[in-house]
Specification:
The protein is α/β, with parallel strands linked by helices.
């Protein structure tokens, strides 16, 4: 059964066409993975389906009664609202009924109503109607369902009354996911839901998607998540002159990758064959023109016209793009730095009664590759911000600032998981010129090497996709010349080719790398020592991620 129909949708921002004339029908129960390179319009298409963004042209029709729940890339909620209240806000219809039921019960107890049988009967009838509707909408089960979701997602009960602003990025994502599920939607739209989630919760996410009864449209760059959850791949593919086009592939991501490769090889074969046929026809036409000029025989003109008709009727095969451009990322430090980069000397950090780090001790040598791991909310990003000098340790006052020592020649460069280092009101050009003085044309050229076209480079960063924001942040980091990179979830929002480019750039970087990540494959490729943050303690493992997993399992 078709539950959503999109017809000739076009998305444009400030004269920049993201995609054009996209048509697509969504059926009940489908599990779809939406893939494509960064900036091609995946998130925009999802927001249109969610109703939070209007298409420039085209129509979107939902079947009557269809409910849509949407989890954006970065979910913050209401910063001052408690987790529990944020979750229940998913059902404003039930909240309104609860308010109406309470008002009806208050009226029943009013002396003037109690003394008037007709008025009391009217209120009782209204109260019964509200209770019936409340039961139909699942009101009596709402609170128990909310509790079950939070427990299933391993959200500690002592955090249910905390304001959203105190949660980590992964914990906020969990609340957003629980809120979507509590809404009992027909269509579940998930934009990179695995970002910020630790390994345990990624496994929980896989199970929730598989068990969901309705339709799911999932954007993710995690090949393994897509393999485990979806049965159809929709690919938004860049197309010359029209922004992007939509291609449908049956099967999970691995099946799509195989089919795509075979299709490209066939397209290349068809393209070569057709180009030979075009060259043969054009050569014959040129020969007939020469003969026509010499003999003036009209039969040659007829032959020329016949060959031209053959060319005109031919359905042209596009030249296949076997490998698309990748961002040109290379970190070149301005200074080499001393032998020792950073030292933690009994570092403490807490927020209120919550102890994040207690007497943390470790030494990081110049050139080391450190991976920071731990469950959501344990304090990984807090540790990274401490190392970056963005927040101050509690122990600084007690130890005269000696609890964190940074080498005098160490220049730190920080990458924020939610792009906090970017002023989203600036354009990418302005963001680069803020780091290093340069002409506008030079900034545009540098951004082009990071796959940011001119139309995007001159728009506010707020309008860019998550992947484009990430690439702008990397461009700024590259220009900074830092010899110590502190990266918080750097592969979030990056497509697979861009993540591979980042891995290669870090391989060649001679300085120090300290990275928070839940990407197992990225950690295995990049880091050679693990810092685990859990229960206020910093534990050091003298080996890479696979060694750490092995040690944890023993």
């Amino acid at each position: 059964m078709i539950i959503a129909d999109m017809n000739n949708l076009t998305c444009s921002y400030g004269g920049r066409t993201i995609f054009s004339s996209l048509s697509w029908t969504l059926h009940d129960g489908e599990k779809i993975g939406l893939v494509g390179p960064n900036g091609v319009g995946k998130s925009s298409l999802l927001r249109m389906l969610a109703g939070s963004e209007e298409a420039s042209t085209g129509t979107l029709t939902l079947r009557r009664g269809v409910r849509v729940a949407y989890l954006p890339q970065e979910y913050a909620g209401e910063p001052e609202r408690a987790v529990w209240d944020e979750l229940l806000a998913a059902r404003p219809d039930i909240a309104q009924l609860e308010h109406q039921i309470a008002a009806a019960e208050e009226r029943m107890g009013h002396p003037t109503v109690a003394a008037d049988m007709a008025a009391l009967t009217q209120v009782l009838t209204e109260h019964e109607r509200l209770l019936t509707r409340y039961d139909e909408l699942g009101g009596p089960r709402l609170h128990s369902r909310a509790e079950t979701l939070l427990r299933d997602l391993r959200m500690p009960e002592n955090q249910w009354q905390q304001p959203m602003r105190l949660l980590s990025g992964g914990q906020r994502k969990l609340v957003g996911l629980a809120r979507c599920l509590l809404a009992e939607p027909t269509i579940l739209l998930l934009d990179e839901p695995d970002n910020h989630l630790d390994m345990e919760r990624k496994a929980l996410l896989e199970g929730l998607i598989r068990d969901f009864d309705g339709a799911v449209v999932l954007i993710s760059h995690d090949r393994y998540l897509l393999d485990e959850t979806v049965t159809t791949i929709l690919e938004l593919e860049p197309a010359n002159g029209v922004g992007a086009r939509l291609l449908r592939w049956e099967g999970n991501y691995s099946a799509y990758a195989t089919q795509k490769e075979l299709a490209l090889l066939k397209q290349r074969q068809d393209y070569v064959t057709q180009q030979k046929e075009i060259a043969r026809l054009e050569e014959a036409m040129a020969r007939f023109r020469v003969w026509l000029n010499i003999s003036l025989d009209k039969r040659h003109k007829t032959r020329i016209e016949n060959k031209q008709r053959q060319l005109d009727r031919m359905e042209k095969v596009e030249r296949p793009v076997l490998e698309r451009r990748k961002m040109a990322l290379a970190f070149r430090p301005q200074a080499r730095g001393g032998a020792k980069a950073i030292e933690l000397r009994g570092l403490d950090k807490s927020f209120g009664d919550k102890i994040v780090l207690l007497d943390a001790r470790a030494t990081i040598m110049n050139g080391e590759r450190i991976g920071i791991v731990g469950p959501n909310g344990a304090g990984k990003s807090v540790l990274l911000r401490l190392l970056a000098g963005l927040i101050e340790a509690d122990s600084a006052a007690n130890h005269a600032g000696d609890s964190l020592w940074v080498g005098p020649s160490i220049q730190r460069g920080y990458y924020a998981q939610e792009h906090e280092t970017l002023d989203t009101s600036q354009t990418p050009v302005e963001a680069l010129r803020q780091v290093r003085a340069m002409y506008e044309g030079e900034a545009v050229a540098k951004l082009s090497r990071f796959l940011i076209p001119y139309a995007a480079a001159t728009q506010p960063i707020a309008r860019l996709s998550g992947g484009e924001k990430s690439r702008v942040q990397f461009a700024r980091l590259m220009l900074s010349g830092a010899n110590c990179l502190l990266l918080d979830e750097p592969t979030n929002n990056l497509d697979i080719p861009s993540a591979e480019v980042l891995e290669g750039a870090l391989d060649e970087f001679p300085g120090t790398v300290i990275v928070v990540s839940h990407d197992r494959y990225f950690l295995d490729r990049v880091v050679d020592r693990i810092f685990e943050v859990q229960d206020g303690e910093l534990r050091v493992y003298e080996g890479g991620y696979s060694y750490y997993v092995e040690q944890k399992g023993t």
